[in-house]
Amino acid sequence: MKTTKTILASALAISALMPLLITPGMAFAQQYGATQGTPRIEGFHVDEVKRMRPGAELNFDLYGTPGGSAALRIDGATRNVPMVETEAGHYEGTYIVSSRDKIAARSPVTANLRVGNQVASTVLNESLQIGVGYHAAKAVPSPQLKIERFNVEPVADLGGGNDLQFSMAGTPGAKADLVINGVKAKVFMPEVSRGEYATTYTIRSSDRIGRNSVVTANLRMGDRVTSATLGKPLQFAAAPAPVARICYNCGTVEAVNLIEVKGEGSYLGTIGGGVVGALLGSQVGGGSGRTAAQIAGAVGGAYAGNMIEGKVRNTTHYEIVVRLQNCTTQMVPFATDPGYRVGEKVKVDAGVMTRTS
Predict the structure, then answer these.
(1) Angle between helices 288-312 and 267-282 (to 10 degrees)
(2) Labelling 257: which of 13, 233, 290, 357 has CA 20 to 30 A away?
């Protein structure tokens, strides 16, 4: 019983420690599902140096399955080169040539990418020194090598994490790779069936790929090579911007004016005002002066009566001034306040005004 309890306690302790034992590479592998199937190497590249001598710095880039462990072996080097995964699926490594090394410009370089218990390997198809490798001066065009078709499935977005799917048809049994302007490494294209080559390249955040980046496919067999340039963009064309159309009866309220129309007094108001003025004038003065006052009162009363009646008959209405999109103005009358304010977007149709926003 005691032994059983001890074993159970040990198992629980190990289970609690498991999260701490997961390495960053294992975390990448779990996140991207890298443990499923054989790891894949998509591309391999070196920044060639001007001269191979002690102190020269060789910088390598490897693209492939994320979450793995990558290392390089250079023929003639005294040590291997560990590589660090700087972003998902992009491994970088640097080797500084020492005086004890026997590295030549064409020394083979082998990259190994391990994920779990599976390993993928590839050999660099570039030289370590500028202008020395077969890919520069020694590549011989061959009429026996043919690229019959080279295609890509365009994508909507060329940002990091998106996939570019390339396919090519040509001479079977050759080695195929791509050179994408904006990507450091050459991208390998495996032969998926006889004469059919294909690969999917996952764009990295460090890439500088544009819609019209030049992509060249190379088909190699020994020292013979033939090439083709992709004849289509890598990204879908952007949708054309909508053409702005002028709405000739649409516009903006430029002014809201209150209009007052003065009324006019009638003869009734004049007579009524005159009678009242005469009565008032008869109570002022005496003799001929009373007569004069009556006359003045009648005249003034008639004028005042006419004005009072006119004031009562005053009318008001509103006029809305609209600045149309064709730069003209239009006035729309309203009997009462329509509630429009300066700056509102409106539409005027056959004298009827409505809001558009």
Answers:
(1) 150
(2) 357
The residue among 89, 123, 157 that closes a domain is 123
pLDDT at position 260, please?
80
- Tally of domains in the chain: 4
Residue in 188, 180, 181, 182 with CA at minimum distance from that of residue 206: 182
Say how far apart CA 357 and CA 347 lie, in whole Å: 10
Q: What is the pTM of this model?
A: 0.53
Judged on CB neighbours under 10 Å (0-12, 13-18, 19+), 183 is buried
Give the percent of the chain with pLDDT over 70.
70
- The verdict on 224 and 150 lying in the same domain is yes
Q: Mind listing the pLDDT tens digit for each residue in 238-292?
A: 766 676 677 888 989 999 888 887 756 555 445 555 554 544 445 555 555 555 5
Q: How many CB atoms lie within 10 A of CB 12?
A: 10
Dihedral of alpha carbons 148, 132, 110, 43, sign: negative
Apex 265 CA angle, 262 and 271, nearest 5: 165
| Residue 292 belongs to domain spanning | 264-309
Q: How far is CA 2 from the centre of its chain?
A: 65
Residues 196 and 284 in one domain: no
